[in-house]
Amino acid sequence: MVREAAIGETLSLNVSTWGDFEVHLPTVEHLTVMKAVAARPDDLADIRRVLRANPGLDRTQVRRWTKEFAEALEAPDLLDQLDAILKACPQPRRRRR
Fold it and tell me: What is the pLDDT of residue 47?
């Protein structure tokens, strides 16, 4: 189910520089989940940068999918690390109009 969701929600980019073909890229949420599951120091630093650059990122979705992977891999520390990063990088407050 996780794989199907990730594949179904890719971003398509038509590249015509080297011929006519389409490239599928992960959404920012799926990229963040992949980084959280890899959990290397550079990946965890990348998550912080992604959060700062994408204030509208769906943190609930990222946490839900990371939790699924953490449970499947029997690696609860993956979710703990993500939670620590999410807490350290709070979402910006929406401005009132």
Answer: 98
